[in-house]
Write a structure and sequence with these properties.
This protein has helices at about 15-35, 40-60, 100-110; strands at about 1-5, 65-70, 75-80, 110-115, 120-125. By secondary structure, it is α+β, with helices and mostly antiparallel strands. It has a five-stranded antiparallel sheet with strand order 1-2-3-5-4, covered by helices on one side. It starts with a strand and ends in a 10-residue tail after the last strand.
């Protein structure tokens, strides 16, 4: 868990908060490599980036929590942001809009995703096959 500042509308994310995204990606990458899922690193890093960035930009709390776990060939990524509102997938965004595509990407990459009952935690799962275990990163 780390402390952050949720930016107001039109306000930029603070550099120290933006750096947290890459730190959390590194944690996820290390876990996947430890478990032998080298071929899943790229997809997981993209998912982690999107979930953590959404939590920083849209969360209602001043802290963001992250966890990654593995049971068999299922990897679960969870990010908590203190917000009780559930993220919405935007199906259409302008061609030049900077945001709004993250959950569409997650929907495509993850085998399942959702939120906790209270909406404070967003999770997704990657169902990994045996063929991913030995691939080089």
């Amino acid at each position: 868990m780390f402390e952050c500042h949720n930016p107001a509308d039109g306000e930029e994310v603070r550099p120290q908060d933006a750096r947290r995204v890459s730190q959390i990606r590194r944690i996820g990458r290390a876990a996947l490599r430890k478990w032998g899922f080298h071929g899943a690193v790229d997809d997981a890093e993209l998912i982690i980036s999107e979930l953590v960035t959404n939590a920083i930009e849209n969360g209602s709390g001043c802290s963001v929590g992250f966890s990654i776990s593995c049971v068999g060939t299922t990897v679960r990524i969870e990010v908590a942001d203190g917000s009780h509102s559930r993220p919405q997938v935007r199906r259409r965004g302008g061609l030049y809009e900077e945001g709004g595509r993250g959950l569409v990407l997650i929907e495509h990459l993850a085998s399942a995703w959702g939120t906790s009952e209270d909406g404070t935690r967003t999770w997704c799962e990657l169902q990994l096959g045996e063929d991913l275990e030995g691939e080089p990163s």
